[in-house]
Amino acid sequence: MQVVSRRVVTVAYGEPVHHVMQFDPADSGYLYLMTSHQMARVKVAACHVHSTCGDCVGAADAYCGWCALETRCTLQQDCANSSQQHFWTSASEGPSRCPAMTVLPAEIDVRQEYPGMILQISGSLPSLSGMEMACDYGKNIHTVARVPGPAFGHQIAYCNLLPRDRFPPFPPNQDHMTVEMSVRVNGRNIVKANFTIYDCSRTAQVYPHTACTSCLSAQWPCFWCSQQHSCVSNQSRCEASPNPTSPQDCPRTLLSPLAPVPTGGSQNILVPLANAAFFQGAALECSFGLEEIFEAVWVNESIVRCDQVVLHTTQKSQVFPLSLQLKGRPARFLDSPEPMTVVVYNCAMGSPDCSQCLGREDLGHLCVWSDGCRLRGPLQPMPGTCPAPEIRTIEPLSGPLDGGTLLTIRGRNLGRRLSDVAHGVWIGGVACEPLPDRYTVSEEIVCVTGPAPGPLSDIVTVNASKEGKSRDRFSYVLPLVHSLEPPMGPKAGGTRITIHGNDLHVGSELQVLVNDTDPCTELMRTDTSITCTVPEGALPAPVPVCVRFERRGCVHGNLTFWYMQNPVITAISPRRSPVSGGRTITVAGERFHMVQNVSMAVHHIGREPTLCKVLNSTLITCPSPGALSNASAPVDFFINGRAYADEVAVTEELLDPEEAQRGSRFRLDYLPNPQFSTAKREKWIKHHPGEPLTLVIHKEQDSLELQSHEYRVKIGQVSCDIQIVSDRIIHCSVNESLGAAEGQLPITIQVGNFNQTIATLQLGGSETAIVVSIVICSVLLLLSVVALFIFCTKSRRAERYWQKTLLQMEEMESQIREEIRKGFAELQTDMTDLTKELNRSQGIPFLEYKHFVTRTFFPKCSSLYEERYVLPSQTLNSQGSSQAQETHPLLGEWKIPESCRPNMEEGISLFSSLLNNKHFLIVFVHALEQQKDFAVRDRCSLASLLTIALHGKLEYYTSIMKELLVDLIDASAAKNPKLMLRRTESVVEKMLTNWMSICMYSCLRETVGEPFFLLLCAIKQQINKGSIDAITGKARYTLNEEWLLRENIEAKPRNLNVSFQGCGMDSLSVRAMDTDTLTQVKEKILEAFCKNVPYSQWPRAEDVDLEWFASSTQSYILRDLDDTSVVEDGRKKLNTLAHYKIPEGASLAMSLIDKKDNTLGRVKDLDTEKYFHLVLPTDELAEPKKSHRQSHRKKVLPEIYLTRLLSTKGTLQKFLDDLFKAILSIREDKPPLAVKYFFDFLEEQAEKRGISDPDTLHIWKTNRCLPLRFWVNILKNPQFVFDIDKTDHIDACLSVIAQAFIDACSISDLQLGKDSPTNKLLYAKEIPEYRKIVQRYYKQIQDMTPLSEQEMNAHLAEESRKYQNEFNTNVAMAEIYKYAKRYRPQIMAALEANPTARRTQLQHKFEQVVALMEDNIYECYSEA
């Protein structure tokens, strides 16, 4: 027979083989065999798998036998000299013919000399006579061996014992060692045996407390010498004295029970002895361990007394071993086969309550409870009863009706012993049986609940002479199961199933059994679902699924899971991948619809496995894993977490045994990554923007056989569309314009995970741009020459003007000093009067908490605020005040039609439970933030809505915020930690701002509120002391340069007697300026009358008329514009008090009007082209035209009036200092817990990332926490806190103050110069002092005692409780759902990609929410 060709053929596992077989004619070691439709070539025997003679011969393989001198299992023809007798042992001879050896003597005394060792060798071995032999002791130690003469069957050999100095050391705590010796023939160890080396003298050292007994009980021939107290192997070494010959004759102590002893108590202890006549009278000591030695006195020949024994312990109880030792001869003890022990107890330790203290009586501890556990005195009475049991927690809180739940009760005084509570634990009227082995005295009871007649909920009581009751209630409920999904899966197991039902969280133990016996693993459960992984099934068939609580009967539900045939993989393509991986591998097969997850791994050279995607029931796509080298390697697939096992075997010529066992028949060939270059191999390519761009890319020859869709070419971030692909060339073109701003763009080509930058595209201008640049430069040069001539001409004129200005500045400086002094004195007087006049019954007009929250969280940042946050029309009451309350949708009812309410409420409830799942919420937030059209406005809105929705669970909200912050830190810290989080651009940053607002509200109201309100009043008083332009809003006194009135307007105060029936007062004297418009006068009058009323309740200036009684018969209605108004330069001037020539002390009356005259509108909205108040628009912008109005006015540089900023600053300085000190101080009675907690969190995150720079940590605390996140927001928006009117001018002043606060919290040096803005220059002198206050505040926070998670959670829970039910969370949930609906596909994709979310089926729950809400929400909202 001639072999023409050979190829690999697979044979199915377990398939029968035809009885007709044929040996390979070329090699009789191989056999050709046939199955029903295949033929294969296999080896006749696999002898090499057997490593010992016993395994080889015992396998009963007719072809295999043991080759004695080669010590291996072989075919007979593979063994040298196998034709001769005893060289090769066949299976027919049996294991008894395997080589064996015995060593004589088998036990050797370490102290005795031995001439040699006799070796008895048996079994099937050829004659060793004349062969090169040695005895091998390991570690390269050999001695000479010899055989006297030829022999078969049993051979005798002689061997020298290894030298004494080469003896191995004795193991610790052992008096002997076992040595292995082998006979070495022709360089191979053919047979081995063990012998023992012992040392009697080590016996007494190893067993010091039973030296005599252990010596005489040893398996070696040892003898005990009483006089020397030693164990010897030669009895002649003992001195003449009666020496014991058996273990029973050894002197020893006898076991005698002793009562427990209190710590520090003195007592005598009697120790009975046996066989001690030899020692009577010898000096003994009582040893109780390390350095606890007391004198021993002989009472008689069989009793010794330990005198005045005093033992101490700091433990609850301690056991001291008692031994008798020879005095002056340490470590020589009388035998103690059964050692005596003394228990010493300390009542003061380990008994924190009465029951634990008195319960120690069962242990013999004489303790009594008296303000703590104490030792009972000899005259004290027996202890009485303990207080009633105190139950702190019970766990779990519910269980099934059948009982069997292990209920754990924790507390204090829960009985002194088990018998106290054995029948005293009840759940209402149902008994709970305590478990003896789980009972902890006084502290914990674990009992088994009894069956209940029906559902009930009741408290748990423990009766131990007195009755204790739990605060929580235990509920008996009936768990129900409804359905199971998915209903089927492969029989290989691994399918994650979800069982739906009700009350599935009850009880202490849950089991899910498949087919009544196999447990479902990785259990996770909630109230309504159980998720677990099904085990492997035996056959494709339906099997019952049983849900058991507390190992009782199955819950009724008739659940069935179908085991189906396993998915089958038939082919993969392509079978080649670049070494970087990432190439899409298409896997073809059957029954993939049952696959929940699948991954691909490459053995030996593969990197991390990759996750695959199931396309349909027959196709899967997998990115190829990266590889360590270029090679071919087997591929494994893991379906539903189980290794895929192919149901066909492969011939051993193709795969090694390990791969054959795995059943992997797919391989992936890894080839070098493809290499690319530009057509001319240049590294820089020039390109003019706007021109078409086509790239020609050269590709090196490879064997990957890549398709056109597998290439990705990018220029920067712009994709290059591939037009032509061949073996060596790739053509691509760019269809969109490339921005010239970048300058240089990398050209990158990607194949799978492999990226290569082949060149850089340099963007340059065209020739036209160069020509234009030359022309522009020429024109600029000409203009520069002209400008230089003009400058020289005007510089002489400017010098004369400067001399004049200098004189004016000196005059103004003296005026400013006087103005500051007078202004501060006047403001202090006014503010003192204001503080006294504040109505203490009403106090500072703080907004309610709910309005503070809505204004802070939604400062026109969300559509919800802009579209639905409105003020109702105001109605005036009889006193003239208006009743107006802000209405925010979060504070009112959820307005939806009743027909839609059931479904929507159910959907919102389910959506709320999803938001309360940490995994879902974090994935949800991340998914939204990854969307490009999810703007900063949307992020702010979402964060605030989440804060409202989770306001009742601030502990959970805080944990979510911390996890999102950690993610944000991880994403940002690697770049530049100091620049991190300077703006609110993410959801978590707005969440942090809201969290700080909630936590700091109490501090804001109780500590900072009053100085802040006084500062606002002071700013308003100071502004009102000078002229204010009603059209432009600019004023004589201000802190902001942009709002400074740069004109010297002469204004005189007027005290007016005003009567007005409103706000509880009839008449007042009101101070105004003669330059005030009539609207300004009305506002000052309203402020004087309504200063103790919230601003929202004031009448508006448009709602009142002001009448001047010029005489008893004449009166005038005063208005801003009327027929008497003056016209200047074509503009009408607003009327003022000076225009009407109203004198000092004039009488005016103000009254409400029924209809407002809206023809004028608000003064500040008037057209500046038609009206003006104090200055014309051109007065401050350009050189004035000469007119009658300006002819008499003294003109100076406008910058000279900047000194008025200093005047205002000096006047307000004290109030600003008081505010900053209030913000940056710590009250001992109410420390800022939230600040401390969050500062510690930031320090912990910095430490984890190795950030030790203190400046970086300071910036983190400033940017994230107080200054920028909270206080600056409050300083710039007082209307968030108070019910006041924040004018545009006050807002400008507060911006300057806020900037000063920001600079104070910064650590960078202020680089100030003549061109610096006045907003920074104004407080530059005070900033260093403010910074010291900030640093001291941060240091005080750092020195506070750290907060534990429990303490912070308790604080947050209290904040939640304090303001519960303030907001309608359903409205917030509905608004959040709009975002969920808007980005539904992206959220679903993120949930699918998250393993935890996928395992807990969160995507299905989210789909349920959408199903409930989708049909109704838009229709209902349109109706609403």
Fold and architecture overview:
This protein is of the alpha+beta class and 1424 residues long. It is 28% helix and 27% strand. The protein is built from 29 helices and 74 strands. It has an eight-stranded mixed sheet, with no helix packed on it. An eight-stranded mixed sheet has the order 18-20-23-22-21-24-25-19, with no helix packed on it. Strands 28-30-33-32-31-34-35-29 form an eight-stranded mixed sheet. β67 (1053-1062) and β68 (1065-1073) form a beta hairpin. The longest helix has 71 residues, at 767-837. Residues 1-13, 649-663, 837-841, 861-885, 1179-1196 and 1417-1424 have low confidence and may be disordered.
Whole-number average pLDDT?
84
The biggest beta sheet reads: 8 strands, mixed
Q: What is the general shape? A: extended
Helix content: 25-40%
Q: In percent terms, what proportion of residues is strand?
A: 25-35%
- Counting helices, strands and paired strands, the structural category is alpha+beta
Radius of gyration: 49 Å
- Total helices: the number is 29
Q: Tell me the strand order in the biggest sheet.
A: 8-10-13-12-11-14-15-9
Spans where pLDDT lies below 50 across 5 or more residues:
1-13, 649-663, 837-841, 861-885, 1179-1196, 1417-1424
Distance between the termini: 93 Å
Beta-strand segment tally:
74
